[in-house]
Amino acid sequence: MHAPGTSLHLVDSDEIPRGRVDRGRVDSGRVDDGWIDDGQVVDGRIDSGQIDGASPHRVRIIDGTLTCLARHGTTKTTVDDIARQAGVSRATVYRVFPGGRDEILAAVVDTEMARLFSALGVRLGKAHTLTEALVGGIVEASSRIRNHAALAYLVDNEPELVLAHLAFDESDRLLTTASRFTAPFLARWMSPAEAERVAEWATRIVLSYAIAPSPGTDLTDPGDAERLIATFVIPGIEALHEAAPPTPIVITPFGTGPRGGASPTTAQPQHRKHSQNTEHDKGDRT
Amino acid sequence: MDDTRQRIIEAAYACVARWGLAKTTVEDAAREAKVSRATVYRAFPGGREELINAVVSWATQEFFVRLYEHVQDAGSLEQVMERGIMFAHRAILEHDVLQRVMQTEPGKLLPALTVESIRIRQGIAAFLVPYLAQRGVAPGVDLDEAADFLARMVLSYMSAPGRWDLDDPAQVARLVESELLAGVVAGAGP
Fold it and tell me: Which residues of A touch B (CB under 8 A)?
């Protein structure tokens, strides 16, 4: 593995899918496409000194930790291992993370979530149609989850750690976070309230197929994802829109009220056009 | 032998309800079931781990038997889904043992529950197939794929409702009509 943060070019896309890519069906040209310019793609994640505006040491320590986790998991990774992998001293690690290992592990989770959301933002922001946004977002998230080396090690060896984020109340929290982030990108095609519902729904779909892969539907494959979206999701979005008026969404914990102050009554005029758009979007997605 | 096995499982479940997963031992289960330790090991050669997995499996099955009883006389696919989601959501919230173990020892429960969830999903899908067949799927929709998709979504909503208020029949009806059935059944949606 390269020294994190030292060289700022995109690696050959051939290098991206390492072993975890299923039957070569991930089109790696899509996976790295359009990311932060000065980032590197390694094991399906962005490796960049710039991405979170954090200190270079912080990023190096986090990336070093990811490498350690992919090899040995959380229980066998020590602060010394992390320091060695990151190429910094033990003292530096403790200066950046006074809480030691636990604080580093929490920062790793936050950073990887931020990286995933940032890549999703790029992907969704570039989409021209609703179908393109949904397919792109679902493929992006599914591919990153599948190709994440540290996550893969933990799923195999410390499953309880991963599952704790995916069950019941924690799953609710994850749905809320992920959909709140992605909804604004979908609000180009529907009201903000509908966008939050649809973003949550797409998150459920990604999680379900990531936790329990289906033999017939591989959501890292754009063709499979598009079929699923066209078959089940687009008709559902139309029904959501035409069913009873949207229930106002009450946003509770993080405090800014409905997104952008928009209410369900400010629904965008192009609502009813999305099905039309989706029929004409083939071919402009590569 | 099956009776003994079943008795031990229910006894172990009672122990889990009282003390949690981590503190339930083979001895506890044997004492509760009024059998010898050797009998427990004969029924569960894998010992404690096999017994605990059997308990999770049995408790999950019990849950779905109750769910099945609640929806079996529903008149339509919509009604099956609506009733099932509302009942399952309530039953999870009101399941004291599940809630307590999730609070105190999620790491012990979740791996076993995740293994179960594959069986559960297949069970829900198999249950839905005849309803879907009777109702008729939309053109181009594969019956088994649709059933699998619905089962995945049902599991997702019942364990994490997200923005949906699953105690409100109007919201549940809207959920079923849109995110669950709109693309699946013939003649639904626009």
Answer: 159-161, 163-164, 167-169, 171-172, 175-176, 179, 196-197, 200-201, 204-205, 207-209, 211-212, 214, 216-217, 228, 231-240, 242-244, 247, 249, 275
Class of domain A13-279: mainly alpha
Contact B111 A171 (CB under 8 A): no
Q: How far is CA B80 from CA A25, A170, A193, A216, B176, in A?
A: 37, 27, 27, 26, 10
ipTM, interface predicted TM-score of the complex = 0.92
**Any idea where the domains of chain A sit in the sequence?**
13-279
Instruction: Tell me the C-alpha distance between A140 and A134, whole Å.
Output: 10
Domain residue ranges of chain B, discontinuous segments joined by +: 52-180
Predicted confidence (pLDDT) per residue in B108-144, tens digit: 899 889 889 989 999 999 999 999 999 999 999 999 9
Count, in order, helices (H) and strands (E) of chain A: 13, 2
CATH architecture of structural domain B52-180? Orthogonal Bundle (1.10)
Residue window 119-158, chain B: list those with CB within 8 Å of chain A: 121, 138, 140-141, 145-146, 148-149, 152-153, 155-157
The share of chain B scoring above pLDDT 90, in percent, equals: 86
